[in-house]
Design brief:
This protein has 15 helices and 13 strands. It is an alpha/beta fold and 392 residues long.
Amino acid sequence: MADDALRVLMIAPTPYFADRGCHVRIYEEARALTKLGHEVCIVTYHLGRDMPGVRVVRTPQVPWYNKLEAGPSWHKPYLDALLLWKTYSEIRTFRPHLLHAHLHEGTLIGSLLHRIFHLPLLFDYQGSLSGESLNHGFFRESSPLKKIFARLERCIDHRADLIIASSEQGRQELIRDWDVDPGKAATLIDGVDTEQFRPHSQSEARRELGIPADVKLVVYLGLFNRYQGVDLLLAAISLIRAKDPDIRFLLMGFPDEEYRVKACDMGIADVITFTGRVPYDRAPFFLSAGDLAVSPKLALTEANGKLFNYIACGLPTVVFDNQINREILGDDGMYVEHGNTSLFADTVLAAIHNAELLKSLSGRLRERAVKEHSWNARSQQLVSVYRRLLAS
């Protein structure tokens, strides 16, 4: 290891790696830092799988807990207690220069260890703790739990030495809603490995998926839940099918059992191919089957990492119009009024039949991914943040 190389201990209170957005950010950050010659260790839950090129240390096995999906859980307190103990042990042997905490629970753990070991603490902020809990239906707007979580969130936000937000909107939210000092909040938006995520053969991808070569195909990749807009997407598919029953949809992700049933009940299952969970290294190949991608994400407090994967594969994309999506797609996105199902369906219909537009956007989006959103550039920015933190 070079003299100026850093040892970074990442705290990840999540079942890493489980092929979803938060985990992709953790992995890509760690892998990009490793490529630069830094040493990274990720401490995480017992669940999930190891990814190549990055060292992972796990908490002891908890046999009865096997939840891989995103969202809060009443099991979290004892899982995080185990993670605190494992992180404490790893600090003593790994001797990191700094702690890089993911999510609010990771930052709470990091803040306790920060006091013991006097290590600089970076908080990697991907969205509001109380906002995410509301989105997942963990409690209602009127619940006393909302106030409790909000107070906890505010406390955690102020414990880190520095915060990096995955979007500028997230940074502004920290400053506006949680009274974080602007000097302590920076933006490091997500990126993409443009060598792995690139266009593949559409015909080969469709052949493997059993999708006819000559159909118009719309793709979605991500978690299946309400705040990701999957319920709205099914409603839009119903509208599209009524106008053009030849369009097909490839919906990739998990947990999808509920949505398979919904699609059958709505009479639209005949135009949808569900794949279930797609391994991260297979995602570029399957995405390449599509002509057009969609992300009807409704949550406004979280990043939208799937867009980076879409554009790196050269997929024109229909999204709702918000700052986070514009930060990624710029002038090359197809934007729809937030939550407007009918307009979303009409925009997909118009785009999928405009071959010239799709071809033009495909090239521009791939170029944007390479020039503006590669993890090669992001990792240099992250190291600069580390140096700033260590110098303060």
